[in-house]
Amino acid sequence: MDITSSDSVADGRLQIVDELGPISILVNCAGWDDLMPFLDTDEDFWDRVIDINFKGMLRTSHACLPAMVEGGWGRIINISSDAARVGSSLEAVYSGAKGGVISFTKTIAREMARKGVTANVVCPGPTDTPLLGAIVDASDNGEKVIGAMARAVPMKRVGQPSEVASAVVYFASEDAGFVTGQTLSVSGGLTMA
Fold it and tell me: Which of 18, 100, 126, 175 is deepest in the core (most CB within 10 A)?
């Protein structure tokens, strides 16, 4: 589905419900960015970053929460970024949008706490994803960019998607039934809070 379109999200939700049944776990993991100084950005760029990284999550959550509330059980896991927790050079708008993800999730956690629905956030640090690969490929000195990212992480490497997935699986499980409104960094110690 296209998370930048409310109609597409509504159609996608209906298709999933038709094929698989009620949605009880929602993982909002779409993201996009392009590294550049804030003063080099424009309003079209801001709109794209916010639409994908923040408003897409609003659309899917708004579409899926009513059934979770009706069923008395649900899990929302939103993927933010450690950039939201510490700020990140060349990612001002992205950091702000992902910061909004954290604040929104805490509010939903409070609103849904007595309805059987939990909401939590996973914040990856630098992770070996296609987005990171595209950013590196677009850079004139991609190896230097990756090297700098790895050096900033106390474990001296970038993360793997499976390491982020493990945190998501935990938040989606019954083991996390008494955990809501929390933010977990999966970043090799980049953020310690």
Answer: 126
**21 found inside a domain:** yes
Which distant-in-sequence residues (6+ apart) come within 8 Å of 102 by Cβ? 78, 80, 84, 85, 121, 123, 183
CA distance 118 to 77: 8
pLDDT tens for each residue of 133-170: 887 788 787 788 888 888 989 999 999 999 999 999 99
Active-site annotation holder among 9, 60, 94, 145: 94
| Domain span including residue 93 | 6-186
Is residue 146 domain-resident?
yes
Global pTM?
Answer: 0.93
Locate the DSSP E strands across 107-190.
117-124, 183-186
- Whether 118 maps to a domain, the answer reads yes
CATH number at residue 18: 3.40.50.720
Cβ atoms of 97 and 48 within 8 Å: the answer is no
